[in-house]
Amino acid sequence: MMNAIGFIALGFILMEVFGWAIHKYLMHGPLWSIHKTHHRPSKYFFELNDLFSLLFGSIAVVLIIKGVSDFDYRFWMGVGISLYGMLYFFLHDVLIHRRMKWFQKPKNMFLKGIFRAHQAHHRTNEKEDAVSFGLFVVPKEYFKEKDL
Ligand SMILES: [Zn+2]
Ligand SMILES: [Zn+2]
């Protein structure tokens, strides 16, 4: 059981680490033409940028299918990636960007910090000069109490 939790955590942590690096160096780099659909207003519900979520989701599905017969590390890492994806969806797409209007602005300190950090990321609509590329791991200055 300890192994299961360890690999779930590993999948989750790797997603934040790789997500940060991919966002900073690829999405705001050679893959900007895809990612910019998330930085510009659009009249459509889906963005080309959603392909990244689809890609990460597919990796999780493949890992789960490959590891399910004996519940090995692939299965649990797939679970960790899926967990990350679900939390990412609720925080980033529902709570922050309000693609579904399910919740009001967060009042909780931790959520407020994440919210501010991601707003800071969206302060620019350009490829260059963006800040704050992670979702959960962000500079602690965003958690200081001040008005949104
Ligand atoms: Zn971005
Ligand atoms: Zn965003």
Give the gist of this structure.
By secondary structure, the chain is an all-alpha fold. The chain has helices at about 1-25, 30-40, 50-65, 75-95, 110-120.
Low-confidence stretches: none
Task: Give the helix tally.
Answer: 5
Mean pLDDT: 94
Residue share in helix = 55-70%
Q: Based on helices, strands and strand pairing, what is the structural class?
A: mainly alpha
- Radius of gyration over all CA atoms, rounded: 16 Å
The coarse silhouette is globular
Which key phrases capture this entry?
globular, binds zinc ion
Describe this structure in words.
With 148 residues, the protein is mostly helical. It has a domain at 2-103. The chain contains 5 helices and no strands. The longest helix is centred in the N-terminal third of the chain and has 26 residues, at 2-27. The radius of gyration is 16 Å and the shape is globular. The model has no long low-confidence stretch (mean pLDDT 94). One zinc ion (ZN) binds at residues 38, 92, 97, 118, 122.
